[in-house]
């Protein structure tokens, strides 16, 4: 049964007509000054088909010289890299949807998994006999690389001396599939082979690469030497790395197979940092009962690293900032986690690789899961569970804010502003969150099938891969070294006999996480707990969960678990209590750990035996839980529950209950020595919020002051802190947390308590670290952060009162003390710098805090000084963060230009990436800002678009980072700051006015009056240029298809979607030609739909007909004009009823907005279009005005009758369809709910409101049958004008973004 349900695993190698058996990479010379490399690659290729004529491989930014076959025949080749410019030949499109489509198509055109590549090599005719016999041949490609913009990074410090004395070095960088950036290859994880690597470097340099070092040969002149590496295990090209530099070598004393490399003068801290690495190897081998798959392992620490750590086969490249001495506490935890993760990636990621990007969640998730188990072993179970809880919160928050994370996008595309089907198109932040979600899903699988069985599955995978690695290529077993979602399902079924396909379908093939809302009531008569749990499916990133859910209830007689099956969005359950309520009976309460404790039950309900209740306590689901229960239950849970996750949940909940009981519970938690330190630090933060809420009734010293003096004060004088002694790590972290939390305490005037400020300044004065064996740099940085947090906005502006400029002399006494302390710490850092300049980082942020709150003049010069290249990376990042905040608050175009220039040209790729991340989190302006920023200019749009499109083509992380920033500021549609494109009509939905492109001329006329001449004034043309909208929908060509609007006049009785798609033929008219042109003349006729003597009923209005006459008979007439369908106001005498009707239609039409990704069965309203097939192409003499007939045609009365009859038939026809649609809705309730969810997401994403008529509006006669018009009675007249007195077009001065739509 399982085999029948399992879908066939698509083999990627079947798409390729050859197989790669071996590759040689030889770098003959490396020139650091020119940033130049020259060498060749040799690929051993086995043909799989006799008709093999071409071979496509990957190569970017390399200069290719020759391609030789078997060193005898030269082959012709073509080079084409479409990724250099994503939107080629585009001049006007500036919306992300268009860019996303082009980006995915471009990356697919060079995807080796689809048998594509940048280089196309034509095999010479001499290779015909070899190919017909399917015999292997060698293909040699000579290449060079100069001044690379990605793939390889050269670090040349600006100082005197030789390259070795300057510590010049180079190393490989990039995201997945980035090896093509520095040598020609098949840049795919699915194409593995054995490798021979040769690197010739200067005699003072060391070359570190993948595989075993076979030999090192010096040249005859002893100036150069060549390193020979051989990798016998089949490995993919993306897992090949290189690092060259004057490295110092340290062989691990515990494991001689492990070697560490660092830059000069760092060996001492290298030894301490790597002294614990052998523990991770031993743990993984013992856990999975499998040996390390390679014969050696190398760690290289470099400067200006692309990421903190990246794994290649048999080696890892880490940042020098990960090194630390024995005196450093905080960095130790971070470095050990990163190094353990890189070792785990040697097993899953390098040895066992993903088959395609859609299977990346497996290698990343398993490696992350193994590293988490090592952290659990090293740092304890509390650290592990707390970390899992934090990961669940991060992932759920991201999915709620941005959108769902789709782990396997092979079946569907997400609704995000970027494509998730390629590693080079996803957002950098999305990639990080996908990695975390993958870890959580593997952990959920562990809870589903059991830890032992999952470890057996991993052991089986390693065993199969190890056996395959020993075989030759022709054996066909190298495919076992690749892992895919389908193969993972099969091996789990083989080992465990369990079918996890439903689990994979829910958590891997779907995006989102479950969101539960619940509460309960105790029924005393029946002694049951009535539980109600709801799911929120309307929120972004929501997932409809169906399956088991565990609820734990703590009663007086113990803790009991109950499992319920969730099937509906709202479910009610009943739990029978095992214990009765106790009245005045003393008895110990048994906990879930088996421990029995005494509790003060006076606070609880005397009739209820329930102490507290938890949902999904073991985090078996990826979920977000909002649980409601009384405050005393949260206090009991915080005091007596032994699970750190439960304590964390209780602390978050108690922020909403600022009572003396909550204060006492939090205080006891902080003082509780056996409580986990992160729970205690979180309790400090919560107590600050509670104290600020209780400031009017607070009694006693400020919060945590007594606890601090009790724990850290001197015995003789508690007001003076003891000498630093950080041997107790828990006390060290609590000390920092208390200092930071107390700085946020405020009085009734929302100003920092004076006693707190004096207390913090005394901590600076009495800080003594002489006898401490650990560094206090992080503690001093926390003190600087604390005094900056005491700063509140200045009450009045000095310049307004006295005319003085804000400066340090005009500061208050307290602010002067704070500024003096910050200045002293900053100057001391220049003389005695601390580890990673942590104090400098805090001082820069404190100075920005003083500027933001108007205590110092806003000046960006100091931050620009610290942001220059050559300053330590952490200091640069802090100063850039302050600069970006300065840009946001001051709207400084100069500083924005400065940071964007750094994104384009800075030498440190990590700095460039972090700038974009900070600009995304704190952008200069947002799409939804009410006031348009002065920075929102078309120049900025063009600059960002150029960076996305072509400037950053060699670094996909930067390119996608710019796209993230672009989305935050402009959304998915055309930026509002751009001028209105030609032939675009803007409709003001509320004010019933229109704005037309200034290149279009109009002539409006009413059919019941004489000829009326009008011409647009030249003075108002400038106003039209400024009349723009927030969401500018522009028709576009996507993927060779054109969306063509259906002709409502010709297809009135043909229901269908809003637009049909057809292939772009050579003789068809593109959309750019189907709109109105500058020389076109538009005339409007109003035709009364009523007969003579009949009154206009409510819901009916005048129909309008737009005629377009061309000035040049030679140019073909556009076949269609796409206009938005907008509801029209019924022509009733009451203005009130007209306004009410408009508001009703507005709300109805907005609620019917449908997601663009929906299928054809979605309920969409056809946009009204014009048909010009019946209009004569009569030449019109260009003039400033047009004349129209003064009376209707004699046959117009018959025309009115026929149209009225057609309208009645149309009315009946629509009722019929409405009835049929309700049946379909009744039959497909689940599909409708998904449809509504997508509609709500679309409405949230859209800022401009596109008004479309509902069925009821159509039936009421609100829809203009021939023309999509605004809601007013006249298309080109203001809402208050007389219908019988048309005038010139009314131009809108400043259209509101929510009231306009562009056609």
Automatic annotation (TrEMBL):
GO terms for molecular function: chromatin binding; metallopeptidase activity; RNA polymerase II general transcription initiation factor activity; transcription cis-regulatory region binding; zinc ion binding. Residues 1198-1219 have a biased composition (Basic residues). Residues 278-463 form the Peptidase M1 membrane alanine aminopeptidase domain. Its main location: nucleus. Residues 1141-1155, 1220-1260 have a biased composition (Basic and acidic residues). Residues 1176-1197 have a biased composition (Low complexity). Gene3D superfamilies: Neutral Protease Domain 2 (1.10.390.10), tricorn interacting facor f3 domain (2.60.40.1730). Transmembrane segments: none annotated. InterPro entries: Aminopeptidase_N-like_N_sf (IPR042097), ARM-type_fold (IPR016024), Ig-like_TAF2 (IPR057345), Peptidase_M1_dom (IPR014782), Peptidase_M4/M1_CTD_sf (IPR027268), TAF2 (IPR037813), TPR_TAF2_C (IPR057991). Residues 631-995 form the Transcription initiation factor TFIID subunit 2 TPR repeats domain. GO terms for cellular component: transcription factor TFIID complex. One of its GO terms (biological process) is RNA polymerase II preinitiation complex assembly. It is found in: Nucleus. Pfam families: Peptidase_M1, TAF2_3rd, TPR_TAF2_C. Residues 1048-1057, 1160-1175 have a biased composition (Polar residues). Belongs to the TAF2 family. This is Transcription initiation factor TFIID subunit 2. It comes from Littorina saxatilis. The lineage of its organism: Eukaryota, Metazoa, Spiralia, Lophotrochozoa, Mollusca.
């Amino acid at each position: 049964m399982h085999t029948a349900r399992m879908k066939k695993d698509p083999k990627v190698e079947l798409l390729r007509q050859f197989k790669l058996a071996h590759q040689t990479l030889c770098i003959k010379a490396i020139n650091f000054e020119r940033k130049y490399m020259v060498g060749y690659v040799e690929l051993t290729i086995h043909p799989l088909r006799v008709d093999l004529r071409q071979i496509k491989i990957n190569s970017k930014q390399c200069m290719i010289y020759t391609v030789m076959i078997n060193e005898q025949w030269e082959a012709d080749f073509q080079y084409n890299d479409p990724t250099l410019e994503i939107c080629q030949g585009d001049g006007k499109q500036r919306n992300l949807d268009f860019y996303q489509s082009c980006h995915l198509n471009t990356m697919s055109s060079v995807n080796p998994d689809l048998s594509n590549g940048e280089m196309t090599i034509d095999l010479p005719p001499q290779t015909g006999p070899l190919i017909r016999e399917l015999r292997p041949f060698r293909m040699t490609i000579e290449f060079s690389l100069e001044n690379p913009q990605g793939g390889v990074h050269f670090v040349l410090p600006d100082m005197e001396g030789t390259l070795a004395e300057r510590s010049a070095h180079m190393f490989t960088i990039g995201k997945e599939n980035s090896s093509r950036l520095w040598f020609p290859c098949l840049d795919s994880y699915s194409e593995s082979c054995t490798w021979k690597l040769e690197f010739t470097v200067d005699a003072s340099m060391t070359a570190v690469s993948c595989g075993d070092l076979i030999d090192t040969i010096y040249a005859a002149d002893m100036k150069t030497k060549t390193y020979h590496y051989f990798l016998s295990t089949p490995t993919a090209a993306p897992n090949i790395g290189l690092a060259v530099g004057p490295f110092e070598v340290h062989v691990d004393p515990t494991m001689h197979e492990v070697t560490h490399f660092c830059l000069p003068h760092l060996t001492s801290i290298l030894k301490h940092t790597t002294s614990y690495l052998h523990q991770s190897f031993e743990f993984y081998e013992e856990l999975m009962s499998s040996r390390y798959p390679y014969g050696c392992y190398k760690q290289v620490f470099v400067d200006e690293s692309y990421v903190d750590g990246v794994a290649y086969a048999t080696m890892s490249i880490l940042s020098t900032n990960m090194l630390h001495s024995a005196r450093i506490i905080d960095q130790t935890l971070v470095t050990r986690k990163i190094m353990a993760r890189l070792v785990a990636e040697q097993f899953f990621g390098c040895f066992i690789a993903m088959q395609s990007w859609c299977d990346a969640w497996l290698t990343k998730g398993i490696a992350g899961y193994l590293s988490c188990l090592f952290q659990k072993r090293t740092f304890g179970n509390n650290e592990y569970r707390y970390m899992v809880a934090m990961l669940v919160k991060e992932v759920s928050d991201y999915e709620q804010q941005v959108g769902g994370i789709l782990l396997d996008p092979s079946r569907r595309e997400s609704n995000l502003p970027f494509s998730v089907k390629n590693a080079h198109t996803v957002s950098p932040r999305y990639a990080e969150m996908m990695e975390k979600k993958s870890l959580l899903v593997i952990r959920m699988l562990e809870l589903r099938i059991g830890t032992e069985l999952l470890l057996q599955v991993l052991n089986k995978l390693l065993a199969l891969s190890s056996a395959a690695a020993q075989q030759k290529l022709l054996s066909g077993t190298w495919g076992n070294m690749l892992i895919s979602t389908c193969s993972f399902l099969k091996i789990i079924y083989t080992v465990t006999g369990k079918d996890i396909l439903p689990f994979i379908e829910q958590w891997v093939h779907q995006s989102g996480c479950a969101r539960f809302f619940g509460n309960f009531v105790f029924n005393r008569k029946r002694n049951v707990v009535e539980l109600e749990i709801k799911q929120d499916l309307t929120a972004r990133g929501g997932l409809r969960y169906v399956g088991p859910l565990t609820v734990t209830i703590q009663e007086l007689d113990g803790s009991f678990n109950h499992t319920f099956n969730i099937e509906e969005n709202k479910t009610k359950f009943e739990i029978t209590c095992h214990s009765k309520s106790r009245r005045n009976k003393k008895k110990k309460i048994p906990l879930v750990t088996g421990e029995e404790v005494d509790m003060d039950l006076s606070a609880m309900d005397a009739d209820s035996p329930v102490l507290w209740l938890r949902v999904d306590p073991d985090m078996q689901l990826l979920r977000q839980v909002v649980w409601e229960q009384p405050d005393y239950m949260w206090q009991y849970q915080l005091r007596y529950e032994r699970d750190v996750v439960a304590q964390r949940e209780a602390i978050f909940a108690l922020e909403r209950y600022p009572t003396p009981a909550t204060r006492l519970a939090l205080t006891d938690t902080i003082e509780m020595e056996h409580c986990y330190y992160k729970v205690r630090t979180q309790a400090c933060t919560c107590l600050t919020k509670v104290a600020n809420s209780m400031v009017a009734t607070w009694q006693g010293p400020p919060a945590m002051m007594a606890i601090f003096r009790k724990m850290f004060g001197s015995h003789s004088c508690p007001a003076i802190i003891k000498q630093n002694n950080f041997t107790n790590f828990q006390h060290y972290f609590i000390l920092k947390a208390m200092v930071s939390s107390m700085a946020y305490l405020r009085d009734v005037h929302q100003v920092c308590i004076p006693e707190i400020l004096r207390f913090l300044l005394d901590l600076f004065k009495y800080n003594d670290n002489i006898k401490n064996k650990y560094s206090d740099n992080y503690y001093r940085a926390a003190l600087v952060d604390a005094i900056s947090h005491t700063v509140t906005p200045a009450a009045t502006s000095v310049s307004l009162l006295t005319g003085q400029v804000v400066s340090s002399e005009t500061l208050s006494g307290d602010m002067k003390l704070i500024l003096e302390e910050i200045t002293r710490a900053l100057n001391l850092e220049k003389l005695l710098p601390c580890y990673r300049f942590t104090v400098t980082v805090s001082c820069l942020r404190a100075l920005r805090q003083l500027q933001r709150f108007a205590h110092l003049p806003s000046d960006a010069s100091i931050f620009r000084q610290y942001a220059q290249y050559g300053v330590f990376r952490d200091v640069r990042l802090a100063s850039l963060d302050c600069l970006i905040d300065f840009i946001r608050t001051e709207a400084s175009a100069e500083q924005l230009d400065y940071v964007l220039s750094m994104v384009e040209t800075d030498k440190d790729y990590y700095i460039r990436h972090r700038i974009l991340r900070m600009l995304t989190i704190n952008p200069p302006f947002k799409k939804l800002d009410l006031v348009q920023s002065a920075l929102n200019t078309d120049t900025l749009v063009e600059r960002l678009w150029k960076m996305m499109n072509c400037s950053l083509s060699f670094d996909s992380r930067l390119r996608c980072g710019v796209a993230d920033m672009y989305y935050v500021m402009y959304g998915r549609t055309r930026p509002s700051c751009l001028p209105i494109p030609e032939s675009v009509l803007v409709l003001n939905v509320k004010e019933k006015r229109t704005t037309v492109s200034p290149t279009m001329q109009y002539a409006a006329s009413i059919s019941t009056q004489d000829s009326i001449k009008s011409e647009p004034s030249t003075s108002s043309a400038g106003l039209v240029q400024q009349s723009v909208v927030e969401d500018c929908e522009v028709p576009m060509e996507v993927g060779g298809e054109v969306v063509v609007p259906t002709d409502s006049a010709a297809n009135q009785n043909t229901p269908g979607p809003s637009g049909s798609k057809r292939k772009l033929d050579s003789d068809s008219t593109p959309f750019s030609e189907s709109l109105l042109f500058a020389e076109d003349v538009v005339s409007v006729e109003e035709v009364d739909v009523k007969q003579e003597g009949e009154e206009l009923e409510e819901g009916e209005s005048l129909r309008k007909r737009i005629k377009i006459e061309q000035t040049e008979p030679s140019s073909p007439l556009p076949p269609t004009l796409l206009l938005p369908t907008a509801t029209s106001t019924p022509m009733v005498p009451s203005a009130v009823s007209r306004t009410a009707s408009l508001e009703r239609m507005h709300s109805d039409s907005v609620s019917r907005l449908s997601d663009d990704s929906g299928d054809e069965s979605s309920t969409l309203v056809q946009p009204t279009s014009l048909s010009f097939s019946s209009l004569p192409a009569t030449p019109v003499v260009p003039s400033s005005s047009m004349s129209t007939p003064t009376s209707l045609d004699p046959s117009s009365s018959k025309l009115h009758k026929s149209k009225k009859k057609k309208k009645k038939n149309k009315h009946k026809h629509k009722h019929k369809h409405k009835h049929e649609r309700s049946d379909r809705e009744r039959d497909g309730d689940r599909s409708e709910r998904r449809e509504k969810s997508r509609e709500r997401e679309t409405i949230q994403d859209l800022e401009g409101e596109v008004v479309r008529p509902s069925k009821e509006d159509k039936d009421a006669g609100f829809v203009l049958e021939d023309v999509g018009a605004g809601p007013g009675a006249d298309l080109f007249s203001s809402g208050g004008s007389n219908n019988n007195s048309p005038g010139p077009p009314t131009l809108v001065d400043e259209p509101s973004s929510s009231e306009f739509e562009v056609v």
